[in-house]
Amino acid sequence: GGVELAQDLSTLAAAALELKRWDEAEAAAHESLVLRERNPRESRWRIAYTRVLLGEAQLGQASAEPAALA
After folding, report:
1. 64: Cα separation from own chain's centroid
2. Quick check: 30 and 54 in contact, CB under 8 A?
3. Looking at beta carbons, which pairs linking 25-32 to residues 24 or more positions away fall under 8 Å?
4. Using CA atoms, how far apart are residues 40 and 22, in angstroms rounded to an integer?
5. What is the C-alpha separation between 27 and 25, in angstroms, rounded?
6. How far apart are CA 23 and CA 14, in angstroms?
7. Is 39 in contact with 3 (CB distance < 8 Å)?
């Protein structure tokens, strides 16, 4: 179901962050966040944690862009 998928996507995002695979982390965190926010029973801390993952991925993307352009 959606709860399990949201958790799996968060786990994938965290793993991608560890590998500095920013685009993959961003996509997984974003999809997880969408699922979590749609679930009225989802805990606030899990939603907050997923937002942190998303923010870390976006920060990584932003910091990697100048290197990609060089």
Report:
1. 17
2. yes
3. 25/53, 25/56, 25/57, 25/60, 26/54, 26/57, 26/58, 26/61, 29/53, 29/54, 29/57, 30/54, 32/5, 32/6, 32/7
4. 29
5. 6
6. 12
7. yes
Looking up tokens 């937002």 gives 51
CA–CA separation, 16 vs 6, rounded Å?
15
Q: What is the pTM of this model?
A: 0.89
The first and second tokens of residue 49, run together, are: 């944690």
Per-residue pLDDT of the chain (70 residues; tens, 9 = 90+): 789 999 999 999 999 999 999 999 999 999 999 999 999 999 999 999 999 999 999 999 999 877 655 5
